[in-house]
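Re: weekly structure request thread

Next one in the queue (337 aa):
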Amino acid sequence: MEAQPAIAGLFDERLGRRPYATDILQYGVRMMAPAVARRRRYIQANPPHLRAWSLFDIDRPGGGLAWEDRDLPMPSWVCVNRTNEHAHLSYGIEVPVLLGDYNGLDRPIRYLAALETAMRVKLGADPGYSGLITKNPHRSDVYRVLWGHRLYALGDLQGYLGNLSKYRLPANEDPLHYGLGRNVGTFHALREFAYRAIRDYWGEHGGFVHFLASLHTWGQEFTGNEHTPPLDYREVHYIAKSVARWTWARFTPAGFSKWQRSAGRKGGQASGQSRRAETAERDALIVSRVLAGEAQRAVARDLDLSERAVRHILARVRHEAISDNSPLRPNSPSRLA
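Done, posted below.
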């Protein structure tokens, strides 16, 4: 079948610099130049830091028409196995979603994760499919390929799915352990680890590089233990880089030391100093997470505090910030209210 030039051309443009590809999945995949990867039967359609195509694996005969059976829009492309009629469906995202640049927040990822979960349920697609590798739509000699005519805005897809509330997780709940839920879960776990690990790299030569390397290693171990299948190491790298940059820019030795002095000035016994330092560190963590946009309820739950205690801490910090006594003076003190 003749390919639609617009979608086929976008498929090529959106490939990563070194996509994974293979002809035989049992032999594993390896990175290749795009021109070589496009000739393989299986290919990595999405770059590791970007969601340009939402991919679904339909493991049943007639899978190529699952979208029509479930009153969903026509995919951007469909690849059907000629032997068993199983299929991969792909919906092109009009404005691709960054998976690695969270800027301290994960709301766009959670929205996309909710959409993909709802689509997966409605299509009856395999929840264990990671979307890393897909049937190559350029191989019409191997698969029956149907090319669509358009990309979709996320809002367009939601129009076919209705209310996403039962698929959209609140900020204080653990994400799903498949699909984009793995990205969200890894981001949150890595962020918590970074808040505490960063002090080990202050003042060290090449501190940021070593800090980033430690986050990458820790993130790989986390997703390897928590997710089946785990995230690809390049996806972990982009998440780790985003978390490392955000944390390194906002958690500084000077700020932390000044905070400790203001919270635990003038000594007392060593045990008292230690408790004050721990309290100062806890308060700094609360402030940073709230300024990053997290709900106070979620912060309280994670730190085993009452919401009232968190509100009290934030009120005190806001007062100190307005008085210019706090090392964590926010740009907008009302965010702490």
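The CA atoms of residues 77 and 147 lie 4 Å apart. The chain has twelve helices and eight strands.
Next request, please.
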